[in-house]
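Subject: Protein entry, chain in single-letter code together with its fold tokens

Area: Proteins and the way their chains fold up in space.

Attached in line: The record itself begins immediately under this heading.
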Amino acid sequence: MRRVIATILTVSLMLSVAAGLTGCFKAPKDWYKDVVAFYAEGEKSGWTYKDDKINWDVAQDLKDAGNDIGYLLVDLDGDGTDEMLVGFNDGSNTTKFTDVIVYSFGTGPNRLIGGGNGYYIYLCASNVLCEDSWYGSDTKRQFMKWNSKNGSFEVIEGEGKYLPKQWELTKFQ
């Protein structure tokens, strides 16, 4: 009986320590540098660049020389780690984002949303994301908050509460 109790206490202690350690993990401060290099090389090469680490399709909107492309680092959920939004300003009063990239422990940068060409993400107040997509003449709009703890976007009520904004983007080059 003592051995069973000792085993249970040992396992419980190990699980407690493991849970405490996982809370200590933080994304590297410059986790996004390879992603920035991918887009910078793509832009410089006329989008013929290929990368072994990052193999993402790039939205035609980012390839359009008339669009002012770049990225924005923002902590969408207040966990202390910035997420990366890639997009462009095209002269309208909102910044259109085509890619939402997050840091995942064990795998590094992950593109959660890849869009463009009629499917855009907008950043609103309170770090709410607004998703617009068009299906012919129909527009679908939903509002989302990123939750890094469960690794997903939670759809929230936002119509009339949150308006897409224009943001100053950091250039890739």
